[in-house]
Amino acid sequence: MSPRLLPRFSFLERVVHWVVGVTFVVLLLTGLAFSYPSLFWLTMFVGGGPAARVLHPQVGALFGVGLLVMFLLWVKDMFLDALDKQWLGAVKHYAMHERDKVPPAGKYNAGQKMFFWLQSLLGVLFVVTGLLLWFPEYFGAGLLNTARLLHYVGALGGALLLIVHVYLGTVAYPGTARSMIDGKVTEAWARHHHPRWSGDRADG
Amino acid sequence: MPDTLAIKRISATPSAMIPLSSLRSSGPVYSKLVDISKCIGCKGCEVACKEWNDLKVEQTANFGSYQSHKDLSSNTWLLMRFNEVAVGDDDVDWLIKKDACLHCEDPGCLFACPAPGAIVQYQNGIVDFNQDQCIGCQYCVSGCPFDIPRFDKETKTVAKCNMCIDRVEAGLEPACVKTCPTNAIQWGLKEDMLALAEKKVETMQRRGFEHAALYNPGGVGGTHMMYVVPHGDRLEDYSLPAHPVASPMPLSGLNVLQRVGSYLLGFGVLGALGHLLAFGQESAEDSEGPGA
Ligand code: HEM
Ligand code: SF4
Ligand code: SF4
After folding, report:
1. Using a 6 Å CB cutoff, which residues line ligand 2?
2. What is the pTM of this model?
3. Which of B119, B162, B230, B242 is the most interior residue, by most CB within 10 Å?
4. pLDDT tens digits, one per residue of B162-185
């Protein structure tokens, strides 16, 4: 008998998420190539250095639009409630897979909500500093060099967050990744990871 | 004697990160010396530069100055800037600046460039751009303390004075030097030019220009185009920054941060792997189906 499935992400949500995901990875790889001479060869994947320089900001614009749509789609579920604040205090147990000591999560746990807010904030930083660097002829050297520094800080933060995000979404919790593929999760997965949400779903 | 064009530094390679002066130098090191007090403003050097380097002519317009163009461009590598400045109580002077790449010993442009090989510094002091390696990011423009490189919207690369590297390689002086009718621009071994500059400064001071000075700023390790200026206390009026620095704060901070960042990213990936090994996967212990 196949397990009962709950719908978790709509087609639109999945498309938008993967626009953001794929563009971010392209941006990360080309951006790393500009930051680290030893990784400059990564530009080969998009046709060489000059092509990478042309594509990076264009892909960045798409990323910015995708992130904005994602923000609008999901922000209503992303505010922290009282149990979420307790969740944050118990994050150590969450990390050690002691789920019985972690307050139950809703559609998203507090870590996911924080990830959402941080990535949205970094998105603003990327877009602002990226626009300066895209059109340098209109700005002074000091401002541009500061933008380079901040753009890198954002990229570093975003990349570190992404490592955690991908690890948790794919390897650490089997059954999660399919929510972003066919949009469904098993009822057992929902009960285990998002008990307050699974309750809504099953009963309502 | 022809030069061998031995390379000193290449952008976006380890040679671009070695602190100055610790690099070994061999062979002759050259410099231009511009004696601004001798310039008669004829702009012969500008024409010679265009001719030798085969640079496109740009339409000029009168904007109320004797200056030929308003600014440098990817096709104008040399511009005599006619700065009109009040001197003393009732006198006006042209504090002319030969605006072109200074060929810094520590080139901020090269340090800022992310494209391997797009900027090369030779042992003889010349800093040259290789347009075929350039990705058009213009980081060199904001990395240059003298605002020299210019972006070409058509080729999407940057350009600047190359010190007539093809002439120097053949044992000739740069075209502007060759042309200058008053010897206001001279060319030779850097040590000889330094000695000559010292004499010029002394002469000027004897003649009443007590602030006469040599411009060879230490913040960029010295330059391979040096100036002797009669009013050394008014560098800004010559459009010469008083304290240029090769890699100033946001950029030096970025360099450190990038190094730290590479470790953080590595540890991030290792950390996720370590977590997996230490704690394993957490599945939803369901009885309802496999792999869920
Ligand atoms: C490229 C690799 C990526 C993978 C494999 C991935 C995977 C996933 C998965 C499986 C989920 C569903 C989690 C759940 O059902 O609870 C998810 C959700 C989400 N993703 Fe991604 N994602 C990636 C990139 C990104 C990027 C680059 C961003 C933003 C900059 C992002 C933002 C989000 C957000 C905000 C959510 C909802 C909240 C959360 O689950 O944390 N993702 N992702
Ligand atoms: S003056 Fe500017 S372009 Fe010329 S070598 Fe120095 S930093 Fe580079
Ligand atoms: S514009 Fe070209 S030369 Fe200048 S920093 Fe970018 S890649 Fe290097």
Report:
1. B 101-104, 107-109, 127, 144, 146, 148-149, 160
2. 0.91
3. B119
4. 999 999 999 999 999 999 999 999
